Amino acid sequence: CAKVIFCADKVIMKDIIVVTGASSGLGKEFVKQIETIENVDEIWVIARREERLKELKCEIKTSLKIFALDLSKRESFDVIKNALEKEKPLIKLLVNCAGFGKFGHIEKIPLETQLNMIDLNCKAVVSACATALPFMSEGSKIINVASCAAFQPIPYINVYAATKAFVLSYSRALNVELKYRKISVTAVCPYWVKTEFFDRAINSEEKTVVINYGVMYDAVKVVKKAIRDAYKNKDMSVYGKINNFQKLGAKILPHKTVMKIWMRRQKFDGTPNVR
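The chain above was modelled as a monomer; its predicted structure follows.
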């Protein structure tokens, strides 16, 4: 039931945080860390795997409201919108972590998978922001997880990188558009992070596509910096020296050169048979 406090003739609605992709990886880590700095009545957690979300209840103190939904399906947002309209909470923070990537030559990744990446990585982010904004006020924040892949085109991670470029551009522009409401938007651009992302990105039936990761960062540290940057109202959060170096390189060098360097490091020859 919705928690509503009545004070004379004034009704004070509950404060909530909404986190998508909360069942694992960065999403789960955001839930665990954000409750230590934000005192809210509930955290609304959204992901496909309901059992994982139920397990999360044992790891945090704040009350959870669970939504087992596939955000690549537009009707999932009808469920969220209806819940928000019914309870009319104040959303202090929206964290969009839902998303996935797929490594491989474009001709070997089914079109359905490519389109699903676009639906979840791009359309779901826009839908979540649009759904949440009517329930946000001055001081509310949005964190959208993009990627260092957003800084340049990346062969063999083609569609994923393109979707994250969209998230980065969308988030930075949205941050400017919402300044009049004093709502900030931060795009988080992590490098490789130790999460379950790779379980879905890598096709176990084929040879490894990416062979040179450079470094794997810790999710705890990435999220800690992301939260710190968001509360400083920064429009982008980039953790790690190598990550910042790559960001600079992608800005200075022509993208054609950056892609050649990537292809050389991964020993790609431009054919579908990458190994």
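Strands lie at 4-7, 10-13, 15-20, 42-47, 63-68, 90-96, 141-145, 184-188, 236-237.
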